[in-house]
Specification:
Elements lengths: L2 H7 L14 E4 L7 E4 L23 H5 L14 H15 L6 H26 L3 H7 L1
Antiparallel strand pairs: 1-2
Length: about 140
């Protein structure tokens, strides 16, 4: 539910009796790690939440990054593996100009990266809370 709607219809909903059964939830895109529920939840209430976040950045220094012997695990979710592989192949084929067919191979891998990014962006947008509500209001 939109919080403004709940605030307009039931101004003191924050003071309602806590319940183990959640009927509504509210999400603010400015604070994606927090949400509110209605009625207020009891201490023992349980929620099932699907959550995702960006991978944590590496902690390598500039010296370590410039050293070719340095290894670091790529911290990305499994579903991004093919996209990363296509990007690496795009870069490799782009730099290898000795063979003329490499330009078309690079372009094909780059197109695969763009396609994967488009699919991921569409999928992420479809899973964002409130998207269906925004489409209905439009």
């Amino acid at each position: 539910i939109d919080r403004k709607t709940l605030d307009d219809q039931r101004r003191i909903w924050h003071n309602d009796r806590p319940s183990p059964t959640i009927a509504q939830w509210m999400f603010d895109p400015r604070d994606p790690r927090s949400f509110m529920v209605y009625p207020p939840a009891t201490t023992g209430a349980q929620l099932e939440v699907l959550y995702s976040e960006l991978p944590q950045p590496h902690a390598l220094t500039n010296e370590q990054l410039s050293n070719p012997a340095t290894t670091e695990t790529l911290r990305l979710p499994d579903h991004a593996a093919n996209m990363v592989l296509d990007y690496v192949l795009f870069r490799a084929y782009s730099k290898d100009a000795e063979y003329s067919a490499n330009a078309s191979r690079a372009a094909a891998h780059y197109q695969a990266v763009l396609s994967a990014l488009g699919v991921m962006t569409t999928a992420d947008a479809a899973m964002r809370p409130g998207v269906a509500d925004a489409q209905v209001k439009a």
